[in-house]
Design brief:
The chain has about 80 residues and is of the alpha+beta class. It has one domain (about 5-75): Ferrous iron transport protein A (FeoA) (SH3 type barrels), CATH 2.30.30.90. It has 3 helices and 5 strands, in the order E-H-E-H-E-E-H-E. It has helices at about 20-30, 45-50, 65-70, and strands at about 10-15, 40-45, 50-55, 60-65, 70-75. A 5-stranded antiparallel β-sheet has the order 4-3-2-1-5. Strand 3 and strand 4 form a beta hairpin. The longest helix is centred in the middle third of the chain and has 10 residues, at about 20-30. It starts with 10 loop residues before the first strand and ends with a strand.
Length: about 80
């Protein structure tokens, strides 16, 4: 399942980062995404939820839906 598919308050563990480009892979890893880390979907913004709020290890991060589609997770 992809990160953007999680429901609010749902937790999961990152399985892989399948970035379409090396630049996006580096960006996600610089922000702190890494295999094995726990993530929690906090919620989606207005206007169709194109912006997501995700808690990654105790840090709140805003992601575009297109970026969250690149992170594969498994439910915790």
């Amino acid at each position: 399942m992809k990160l953007h598919e999680l429901k609010a308050r749902q937790r999961a563990r990152i399985r892989s980062i399948a970035a379409g480009s090396e630049q996006m892979d580096v960006k996600l890893r610089e922000v702190g995404f890494s295999e094995g880390d726990e993530v929690e979907m906090v919620g989606a913004g207005p206007l169709g939820g194109r912006t997501l709020a995700v808690r990654l290890n105790r840090t709140l991060i805003a992601l575009r839906t297109s970026e969250a589609e690149l992170v594969e997770v498994e439910l915790a």
